[in-house]
Specification:
- Helices cover 36% and strands 13% of the residues.
- The chain has 11 helices and 9 strands.
Length: 295
């Protein structure tokens, strides 16, 4: 069985080179650089996630910037809009549908990556979830481990705030992402180790429990966090892929040019070596995203 061309559910670009990313010697990838990387990795199209939150971006990016990229490269990219819950009137009662419905009309397929450094169940964040659910817009969220010196929606060990929101917004599809999310694939973590890429055998943890319990929780397996969750215990990873094949989405989380992730190779090798079924492979690499993006 041959590998198939993939949809990348999670990527970032900036037009032009611009300032280097703090702590690195690289800039964000340009659309042209990312397209070149996609050709090597066998990716047919990617979903650009705007970097609007000041907590996590060395170079702030508007939704309009991303619309401009889409207009220039429609054959290569889809996009999510990104809505900071403090937008508009800086109130937990702001009608965020005003923004979400506008960008949805312009082709946005969801909302994310949500990176504001607020608690997962903060009234501002709940207002955002309410309006995303109202507009039938799935969300990609990044979980952080604390308020301050960090980015992402903050949850406690065991993800109790995430569970609260899964219950409160059952018709909203949540795609989980980040190290603090994927570390909870195993039980053997604490407040310190949840921030790291852990190794060794997986003792099925809260992510497994919540994905089994809540139909609206899915997994964005991009970045090293998603890759590590699947590969630290390969036999567990293969079984996890089979069990949740309808809820997992291939992604890269590419930021820097020529920073190739390993997941695309690992999935291809898993298929080639009969470690995962062709059905699961197709769904994770392409079909689940095609359904989510309504293509």
């Amino acid at each position: 069985m041959k590998s198939i061309r993939k949809i990348d559910i999670h990527t970032h670009v900036r037009t032009g080179t611009g300032i280097k990313r703090m702590g690195t010697d690289t800039t964000f990838a340009t659309p042209e650089e990312l397209i070149g990387m996609y050709k090597i990795m066998g990716i047919c199209k990617g979903v650009i996630l705007p970097g609007i939150n000041i907590e996590c971006s060395d170079r702030i990016q508007s939704n309009e910037d991303v619309i401009h990229v889409i207009e220039n490269y429609p054959e290569h990219f889809y996009w999510f809009c990104n809505i900071d819950p403090r937008m508009g009137k800086n109130s937990p009662n702001t009608d965020l549908s005003y923004f979400i419905s506008y960008y949805k009309e312009l082709g946005a397929k969801g909302v994310g990556e949500i990176c504001c450094n607020l608690y997962f169940d903060d009234p501002y964040v709940e207002n955002l979830f309410f309006h995303c659910e109202k507009n039938n817009m799935p969300v990609i969220f990044h979980i952080g481990h604390k308020i301050g010196e960090c980015y992402g929606l903050v949850d406690d060990l065991g993800l109790p705030r995430l569970e609260k929101e899964l219950q409160k917004y059952p018709d909203l599809k949540f795609l989980g992402h980040s190290q603090a999310f994927w570390s909870e694939i195993s039980m053997d973590i604490d407040d310190e180790t949840r921030k790291k890429c852990n190794t060794g055998k997986v003792i099925p943890g809260r992510v497994v429990e919540l994905m089994r319990k809540y139909p609206n929780l899915c997994g964005d397996i991009s970045a090293h966090s998603g890759y590590n969750a699947l590969t630290r215990d390969p036999e567990f990873g293969y079984a996890f892929i089979e069990e949740f094949q309808d809820k997992l989405y291939f992604g890269t989380d590419i930021c820097a040019p020529w920073d190739y992730p390993n997941l695309y190779n690992w999935l291809d090798e898993a298929l080639k070596n009969n470690k995962i079924s062709y059905s699961a492979y197709k769904k994770i690499c392409y079909e689940n995203a095609a359904i989510l993006l309504e293509i």
